[in-house]
Amino acid sequence: MPEHPGGAVMRKAITAVAVLAAGGAASVFLVNRGDAGQATHQAAQPLPVNTTKVTQQTLKDTETQDGTLGFGTTTAAVNRVAGTVTAVPDSGQELRRGNTVYSIDNKPTTLLYGALPAYRRLAVGTEGTDVLQLEQNLQAMGYTGFTVDDEYTEATATAVKAWQDDLGLDETGVVELGSVLFAPGHIRVDSVPAEEGSPLGPNQPVLNYTGTTRAVTAQLDAADQRLAVTGAATSIALPNGESVVGKIQKVSTVVIPADSPDKDPETKIQVIVAIADQKAVAAWTSAATDVTFTASERKNVLTVPVAALVALREGGFGVEVTDGTTSRYVPVKTGLFASGQVEISGTGITAGTTVGIPK
Fold it and tell me: Structure pTM?
């Protein structure tokens, strides 16, 4: 049969193939457009039964997961020397720089600020980041007469002696392992497993602590790692129906043990979400929340349902454009897939264009 003067004859859809995208799966029909160069000049064919319109909107790749509002990651404060517990704080108590965290044999372990945990004895001649942290804290507490650097000098020892005197300790000028607890900032006591009067050996937990600002902890499947980007904004739905903005603060991988012998352990992506508006969440010490993560966003783009896509035999995708009288297949470029929609662009594709949805 001769070709229509306006272009090649369109043949009917031959088969269906599965297309899997970030936004989900849909059936996409494989069609033959004939001459690829005659994309917009094809002969009339049966009109599609189901149609939709191309819309212009902001498309977001999002997912909502359960979250727990609390105080973020819990850290154990571990005793470094054997002795008897003589003082512990109360659960929920907040401690700041210079406060006693707990006491062993009536010797206090003092909270200081620093990212590097205490791991050794500090004395004249010691050098390193832990020395710098110590000197920064001494200066912040009002002790002077030394240079704040990473060298523990005689001047540092003199300042330490003055600090020890104020604490009612022997003025040795040496900071023994176990006498300070370095934490990133002030802390909140979460739980206290140790009891006053009980003996403790080295490396046994005395208490568990967190930060003092409320945060949300959520877990994602490993396949959803694209959602867990440090610094990305989230939306948090609170128990009272209100929502607050969060920001992903920390991302880590955790392994969830199997709960029965016939199951395998699960790998999860654990996300800590910081909340800037602490007043909005001040009513809860712990609460269940919903966290909406956004992996990507495209503003003011043209979209159609994923089901409207057809796979072209010569490669790529297209949509069946119809004016109610005739229809033709038009190749399109796809972008973001999200929420059952797909971003498209192509010649003649504008907001309001009617396209078919294959059966």
Answer: 0.68
Contact 269, 224 (CB under 8 A): yes
pLDDT in tens, 19-33: 334 344 444 556 665
- Calculate the dihedral angle through the C-alpha atoms of 243, 246, 252, 258, rounding to the nearest 10 degrees: 0
Write phi, then psi, for 156 (nearest 5 degrees).
-65, -45
Token pair for 270: 């654990």
Cα–Cα distance for residue pair 268/255, rounded to 1 Å: 6
138 three-class SS: helix
| HSE, side-chain direction, 13 A CA sphere, residue 280 | 17
Q: Let me know how long the chain is.
A: 359
For residue range 259-302, list pLDDT tens digits in order: 888 888 999 999 999 999 999 999 999 999 999 999 888 999 99
Q: Order of strands across the sheet with 187-191? A: 75-78, 205-210, 187-191, 94-95
Closest CA to 100 of 160, 157, 167, 190: 167
Q: pLDDT per residue over 115-165, tens digit each?
A: 999 999 999 999 999 999 999 999 999 999 999 999 999 999 999 999 999
* Alpha-carbon dihedral sign for residues 209, 212, 216, 219: negative
